[in-house]
Amino acid sequence: MRNLLLLSIVAITTSFVVSVTAFSRCEPTGSDQFECNSFEPNPDPDGIQQNANNNGVQVHVLDDGNIDTNNFSAITVGNGPNHIEVMNATVIGLSRAINVGTNSDVIIIQNAHLEGEGAVFFLDAGDDNLTITDSTIITTVGGVTIPVGDGNDTAVITGSNIISGPGISRSFTGGPGMEDLTIMHSTITNTSADATVSLGVDDDKVFVSHSTITNITDDFPLIGAAGNDLLTIGTAAVIPGGIDCDGDMSVGFDTLIFAMEVPASQIEALTEQIENLPTPEGSITINNIFYEYRNCDVIEADLGIAEPIPALSTWGLFAMAVLLGIAGLLIATTRRRNAVS
User: Fold this and answer.
1) Every domain of the chain and the residues it spans
2) CA 47 → CA 27, 124, 146, 181, 282, distances in Å?
3) Cα 207 to Cα 23: distance, rounded to the nearest angstrom
4) Under a CB-based contact definition with an 8 Å cutoff, are residues 299 and 275 in contact?
5) I need a surface site. Which of 13, 71, 267, 282 has the fewest CB within 10 A?
6) What is the pLDDT of residues 210-221, one digit of tens each?
7) Are the C-beta atoms of 279 and 256 separated by less than 8 Å?
8) Distances (CA, A) of 316 to 23, 309, 329
9) What is the pLDDT of residue 89?
10) Does residue 175 sit in helix, strand or coil?
C-alpha cells in the first residue's frame, strides 16, 4: 500500500512538472530576461507576451527556439530600451513577429525566418537599431513589413530576402526622425504596386549595393519624402522602375549619388556624364544597369575603380602548360624508380 501511494505521488508530480515545462518554452532566465530554446513544445504557441509589464527586456531566441502564435504577436515587450536577438530560429506571429514599445531598442536577426500578417516588426518611437543578416522576412498579408516610428533609426539588411504583400504593402517605411538604411547583398520584393522602400519626413539616408529592390509593376520602388534625403546607389544595385527622390513633392533637398565601381577606362567619361545629368529627372546606364530617377535636386558621382579579374596571357598559358608537363614528368619518373626498387 505504501509503495502504491509513493508511486501515485511520483506520477502526479511528474505529470505536473511535465505540464509546467510544456506550457511555454520561452521562459524567464533572470530579471527582465527571457530565453527561447529548442525544448518542447516546438514551436512555442505562446511566445513572449510582456506588453507593458516589463521595460528594458532582454530576449534571446536560441537555435531552433521557434515560435508560432495563433492570434497575437510572437514577441511583445513594453517600453525599452529592449534588446532582442533571434538566431537560427523561426518566429511567426499572426499579427507581428516582434512588437516593441517606445524608447530605444536593439533588434538583431541572424540566419532566421520571421513572418507576420500586418507587419513583421513594429518599432515604435525611439532611436531603434535593427540588424538583419542572412534571413528571410515575410509579410503574408498587406501592410508594412518593417515600419519604424518616431526617432533616429538605423537599419542594416545584409544577405537577406524581404518579401511584402500581397495587398497594399511596403517593405520598409520611415517615420518622423532621421532614418539610416543600408541594404547589401539582399533582395527586397514587394508583391503589390505600392512603393517597396519609402522614407519618412526628415533627413534620411539610404545606401544600396549588390541588391535588388522591386515591386510587381516596376514603378519607382525606392521613394524619398520630405526632408533632405541622401540616396546612394552602389555597385550592382538593381532598382527596376527607378528612384523617386521626393515621392510626395514636399519641401526638401534631395541628393542622388552614383557610387558604384566601374572599369578604369570608363570612370572619367561616366563621372562627367553623371555630373551633367539633368534634374529633376532623367536616366543613365552604368555597368549595363539602367537607372531612372525623378524629383532629384542634385546628382553626384562617387565612382570607384573595379578590380579587374586576373587573366593569363597567351605566354602565361604556355608557361603554365610547360610547368604542368614538367611536374607530370617528375611524378612519372619517381613512380618508375619506386617500382624498380
Assistant:
1) 117-332
2) 9, 20, 20, 29, 49
3) 44
4) yes
5) 71
6) 999 999 988 999
7) no
8) 68, 15, 20
9) 97
10) coil
